[in-house]
Amino acid sequence: MDLKTLPALTVLSDNVTIVEVDQVKVVRVTHEKATAGIALHGGHVISFKPEGQEDLIWMSEQAIFDGKAALRGGIPVCWPWFGRIAAPAHGFARNSEWTLLEHRENEHGVIIELGLMTSESTFSVWPHQFQAHLLVEISDELKVTLDVINTDEQPWTFSGALHTYLNIADIETVKTTGMGAEYIDSLLDNKVCQGGDELVLTDTIDRVYTKPESVINVADGTRTISVENQGHNSAVLWNPWAAGAESMGDMQDDGYKTFLCVESTLHAPSLEQGKTLQPGERHQLITKISA
Prior knowledge:
By secondary structure, the chain is mainly β. It has one domain (about 10-290): Beta-galactosidase, Chain A, domain 5. The protein has two helices and 24 strands. It is globular, with a radius of gyration of 18 Å. The strands form four sheets. Strands 7-8-9-10-24-20-19-14-17 form a nine-stranded antiparallel sheet, with no helix packed on it. Strands 6, 12, 13, 15, 16, 18, 21 and 22 form an eight-stranded antiparallel sheet that branches. Strands 1-2-3-4-5 form a five-stranded antiparallel sheet, with no helix packed on it. It has helices at about 120-125, 240-245; strands at about 10, 15-20, 25-30, 35-40, 45-50, 75-80, 100-105, 110-115, 130-140, 140-150, 155-160, 160, 165, 175, 180-185, 190-195, 200, 205-210, 215-220, 225-230, 235-240, 260-265, 275, 280-290. It is an enzyme of class 5 (isomerase). Belongs to the glucose-6-phosphate 1-epimerase family. It catalyses: alpha-D-glucose 6-phosphate = beta-D-glucose 6-phosphate. Its EC number is 5.1.3.15.
């Protein structure tokens, strides 16, 4: 996706403008270190290009920017739950309109802060008071922090993920390391399995790696993308392969060939088994991506 050619709706600074992709407003960042785009719909990073490099983030050519559907690709914010343990799948944050709270910049890069808080629509789905902030730090590397605060008078539980789609050359040549050996396989009825030190894919994958190392490396023969996560208890790796891509209306049939999801995940088998935050407590889920 080329955000450079879009006319600015609002100029906030030399480095930060607001543009529109179909019906979705996007915070466009242009800096000598990197360029990036963050959609206000979903608080969704849709692009991150370090200077002189290809985009590290993959977006579907058929992603629907109607301000209603969740965007296919990028970094969806799955919260206050991850998966299909409640409805809607992956929570409401990725379908909600976030607010641009602040932008800061210097010679090292740009920081964009978005916010989401309790509203009538969120309360109808999840009856709790909260504040969520998304901090997107754009420099030689990309750092995304989901910071959630319990502003309720009661404790609540949650899970979540930063569901990153990494832009790769070819899924069949990618070698992934650092994900750890133990995983829960969603394709085998959540069976706990043991894998090797290196992962090379030949078919669809949907796994929750329960003991990932601090850094997961994805090498595609042209570059190695490093993913460093914090505040997580697992890393999810996902690719739908050919049949899965063909079944999705918002992904081109061969789209699966050029991405691998490596997700910073706070995984829980049910909402009740998620992480509990007491009133006033906060939790940060972080992913840091570089090549």
